[in-house]
Structure prediction request, 682 residues.
Amino acid sequence: MNLSSPSGMSERRITKDRATLSPRPNLFDYDAERSRFDWANAWKLLDGLPGGRGYNIAHEAVDRHATGSRADKVAIRWIGKTGERRDFTYGDLRNETNRFANALAGLGVRPGERVFILMGRLPELYVAVLGTLKACCVASPLFSAFGPEPIATRVGIGEGHVLITTPELYRRKVQAVRDKMPSLSHVILVGDGEVDGPGLHRWPSLMHAASPDYTIAPTDPEDMALLHFTSGTTGRPKGAVHVHGAVVAHHVTGLYALDLHEDDIYWCTADPGWVTGTSYGILAPLTNGVTSIVVEAEFDAQTWYSTLERERVSVWYSAPTAIRMMMRLGAEAAKGYDLSALRFMASVGEPLNPEAVVWGLEAFGLPFHDNWWQTETGGIMIANLAALDIKPGSMGVPLPGIEAAILRHEKGRNVELIEELMVEGELALRKGWPSMMRGYLNEEERYRKCFVGDWYLTGDLAKRDADGYYWFVGRADDVIKSAGHLIGPFEVESALMEHPAVAEAGVIGKPDPVVGEIVKAFVSLKAGYEPSESLRKELLGHGRKRLGPAVAPKEIDFSANLPKTRSGKIMRRLLKSRELGLPEGDLSTLESDEK
Amino acid sequence: MTEAEIRRLACEILSDIAPDTDPATLAGDKDIREGLDIDSMDFLNFIIGLNKRAGVAIPEEDYPKLFTMDGVVAHLIRETQDLPGAQ
Prediction:
């Protein structure tokens, strides 16, 4: 692979000689495949439930391999925090997930009911998600770094019926808000530890009592399968609904965008509490029949290098925040490890800066392939591909079966396709791909607003170049992106305003070189409260207790009066411009201010 | 720096980052990140704080040595004994 700058420094390009790539990329001839591809044919890559009884994600991910030649192949290789290892073959995984589906049935849990999973990356998490899908219940994994408020909000919106968690997480994050989740009938506890509460069950006793035989009921591809939460600028988090038929997209994108081959050892570093960790940390590698590595421990650059080496990882899917942290350690650090098995590296979560793409070449002898998608799209939509040149800083090209466009519109009206090159507009996708969300749960109006005509509006601003590569420009709204995760400012503001000292709160994303943006809050105080260092710490602690470290503000500033519109909305954009020392722009709607 | 000084300093920095916790009650061999529920960004700020206030350089490759309070103490005792003013 060569790095060249054909047109000076403005556009670097990592060129590839695809004929020399080994193994041959699954998506070898992009143009031909793009014109030939049809989702209707892609279903043939799957098996379907025996007897034509529909399509169930868990059947495609587990059972079809377990009853075939991959029965004894390792499906998931789990590496615990203290280095212990557990292998699950496809056969093992079938038995365990069957047991769990039976256990749910034994508890009287019915198809369509929502099962939330709140835990670190333990083997039980993977069994629970897949077993839930087998039972035709809806799986919703939650990030274990969420605090009690985000957990209660999400379980509440999803009308969660079952929660699977650990005793420690239950004590720390669930017990105090249990009364906010009246729909919750059963809590299944994984691991030891005493807790009290209604409807508690122990994982081992449920599983021991359950049979390893299970027949998946007929499953309509349009049946709800997964519920992934995401955040908007205003209002509560949104539960994006995905259906069993999404599995065809998980499978095809694993094949095309991650270039998964039979002998690959694959490692997706994302937590299943975020959509990447489910679509690509659980489902796509399994439907493609590869061996998937699961690492329980949190990020540490050297541990990651040694994992790549020891496990002989060949395909690695990671995220910009982690890559930038590894860059801090320097390319030299990689040289001490034998990473010869590694052949394909991809990144997602936020745009990977060009220096980081190029750094991959220096440290690994391989470039990172950035790709783009969202919770709502269910799978990878736009990607730098194994067989195509990489343009560092670009999100790549639309996958076969995906039609992207740049639109100009005024809040959904006067829609116009932007045909000019490198002109910025909203990135849109022609609706109808299989993993497109089917709704925001119980939020029809917010769902409808995501579409205009035939197009799904992504909320991201982007532009397209002459070669059809897309370039991310920014968000069209105030949503914060920290370490690749979307955080809704409203959720953070609401939690802060529950503190007795806080009158108003405005929350923004403050640019940060490592995590993209950090959550920063501006608060004004109620009469009788004075800004002080101890109050600032108290508010930081309050935020962490309610929201957890992944969502809570990292910085809080006091402000006598926050800038607001005439209708009383806090102008986050203005707070942000001031934080960054940028021009303040159009202030015609500004009503009150601290000046 | 003495062990007590190091512990006090580390707890001070950690309670600035996670004011809702009491770092002093953390077991010496417990992973600080897990025990106090801090993320990688918070941990980086902890290292930066130690670096500034103890006056020792902490290269990235030493981060894993600082995942526990015992590790922080051992590392900082070693790193500060050669500094001017150390006994």
Summary: Chain A has a mean pLDDT of 94. The two ends of chain A are 56 Å apart (CA to CA). The first strand of chain A starts at residue 2 and ends at 4. Residues 480-592 of chain A form a domain with the GMP Synthetase; Chain A, domain 3 fold (CATH 3.30.300.30).
